[in-house]
């Protein structure tokens, strides 16, 4: 356990081996953070995932007897947090489960809650622990309808569960103990793959948080943001992403059957780059979708390449489009390219999907079979055209 502030302890678990978070590839593992607040009354805020319950309980035992806990505060029902709550209610038999009404319903749809003693809270409600006060702030859709933040008033500590988290396993507990470029990349990766589609709710919540005096943000995954400088830093990153701000670069993604579409991708990337616009190129069968989504977050353009197989796009391209569609990305231009043999269809169907996402599109580029010098030139010029469009917007 680690003392976050006097009387507030991190009692979570580090999952060094996690790489697959319900399909989202997490290169650096993760943590499930839980916080024990010891005062005249004792509260446990947030819990851990299946398999880590004993880690949580052992850490609590170093500070207090888990049976003595008075309040089990459930900020969010997703099972990476709520699983150990199901165990804690059996240990801390007299504890009240403190949560909002949506979370109560969601908990009942995960576990047998018929014997649980609930205390339902809403925004602004408070519970006094003695010298410390817990204040609750409902945060629907940051990440689920049941999400809620807990604020320890006297200590100015915000526990916002998933918000401001990162999937990163470390022995250090605070963001200021890890190189900033690693912290930034982990925070951006997490935002891109968990929260991108919730920008409207996040913007609203950021406005609300401006009225709070926050010295520490203690999320439910990854590192804790300690001190005003770090709090302001992560809030400014979130503001930028939630406002869909972008940088002048393009992301080219493709899959290719016999390297023709791959050759096209390389020539298009050259055309973009030679016009002075940065570009990142990803082969869809060699790169986790979460890496690509992180790069898309701040890109000005998405360029999608596919060969045609059975009059359709390649399956990896379909998976990519399905993945990004859910994130409701905005303020980007998009187009498609690819090689086909006779009937075509792959590029046409990619364009349909890009238009259905509401993105501004540029006419696509298709060639038949293998690109020769003339077709390579067309690809290069297509890249130049994309770069010019990026500079216009
Ligand atoms: Fe970390 Fe939405 O759960």
Describe this structure in words.
With 393 residues, the chain is an alpha/beta fold. The protein has two domains: 241 residues, Ribonuclease Z/Hydroxyacylglutathione hydrolase-like (Metallo-beta-lactamase, Chain A); 138 residues, 3-Layer(aba) Sandwich (Rossmann fold), CATH 3.40.50.360. The protein is built from eleven helices and 23 strands. The strands form five sheets. Strands 1-2-7-8-9-10-11 form a seven-stranded mixed beta sheet. The protein has a six-stranded mixed beta sheet with strand order 12-13-14-15-16-17, covered by helices on one side. Strands 18, 19, 20, 21, 22 and 23 form a six-stranded parallel beta sheet that branches. The chain starts with a strand and ends with a helix. The model has no long low-confidence stretch (mean pLDDT 97). The protein binds MU-OXO-diiron (FEO).
Bound molecules: MU-OXO-diiron
Q: Within the largest sheet, what's the order of strands?
A: 1-2-7-8-9-10-11
Q: Can you say what the CATH homologous superfamily of the largest domain is?
A: Ribonuclease Z/Hydroxyacylglutathione hydrolase-like
Rounded radius of gyration (Å) = 24 Å
Strand content: 15-25%
**Unreliable residue stretches:** none
Tell me the number of structural domains. 2
Number of helices: 11
Shape: elongated
CATH class type of the largest domain: Alpha Beta
Number of strands: 23
Overall SS class: alpha/beta
Relative helix content? 25-40%
Largest sheet: 7 strands, mixed
Question: If classified by CATH, what would the architecture of the largest domain be?
Answer: 4-Layer Sandwich
């Amino acid at each position: 356990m680690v003392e976050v502030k006097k009387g507030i302890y991190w009692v979570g678990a580090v999952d060094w081996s996690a790489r697959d978070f319900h399909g989202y590839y997490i290169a650096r593992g993760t943590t499930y953070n839980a916080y024990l607040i010891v005062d005249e009354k004792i509260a446990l805020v947030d819990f851990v995932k299946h398999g880590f319950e004993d880690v949580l309980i052992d850490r609590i035992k170093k500070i207090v007897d888990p049976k003595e806990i008075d309040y089990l505060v459930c900020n969010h029902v997703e099972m990476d947090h709520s699983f150990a709550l199901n165990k804690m209610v059996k240990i801390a038999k007299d504890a009240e489960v403190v949560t909002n009404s949506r979370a109560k319903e969601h908990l009942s749809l995960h576990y047998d809650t018929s014997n649980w003693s609930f205390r339902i809270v809403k925004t602004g409600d408070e519970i006094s622990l003695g010298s410390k006060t817990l204040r609750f702030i409902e945060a629907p859709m940051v990440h689920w309808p049941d999400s809620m933040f807990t604020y320890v008033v006297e200590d100015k500590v915000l526990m916002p569960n998933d918000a401001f988290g990162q999937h990163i396993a470390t022995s250090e507990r605070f963001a200021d103990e890890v190189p900033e470029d690693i912290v930034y990349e982990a925070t951006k990766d997490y935002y891109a793959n968990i929260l991108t589609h919730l920008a409207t709710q996040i913007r609203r919540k950021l406005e609300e948080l401006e009225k709070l005096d926050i010295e520490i943000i203690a999320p439910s995954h990854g590192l804790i943001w300690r001190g005003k400088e770090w709090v302001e830093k992560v809030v400014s990153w979130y503001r930028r992403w939630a406002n869909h701000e972008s940088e002048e670069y393009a992301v080219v993604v493709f899959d290719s059957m016999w390297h023709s579409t791959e050759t096209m991708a390389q020539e298009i990337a050259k055309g973009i780059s030679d016009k002075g616009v940065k570009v990142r190129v990803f082969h869809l069968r060699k790169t986790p979708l979460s890496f690509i989504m992180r790069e898309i977050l701040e890109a000005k353009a998405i360029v999608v390449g596919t060969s045609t197989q059975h009059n359709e796009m390649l399956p990896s391209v379909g998976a990519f489009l399905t993945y990004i569609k859910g994130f409701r990305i905005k303020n980007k231009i998009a187009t498609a390219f690819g090689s086909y043999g006779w009937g075509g269809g792959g590029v046409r169907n990619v364009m349909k999907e890009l238009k259905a996402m509401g993105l501004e599109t540029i006419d696509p580029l298709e060639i038949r079979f293998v690109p020769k010098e003339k077709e390579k030139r067309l690809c290069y010029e297509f890249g130049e055209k994309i770069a010019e469009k990026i500079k216009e917007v």
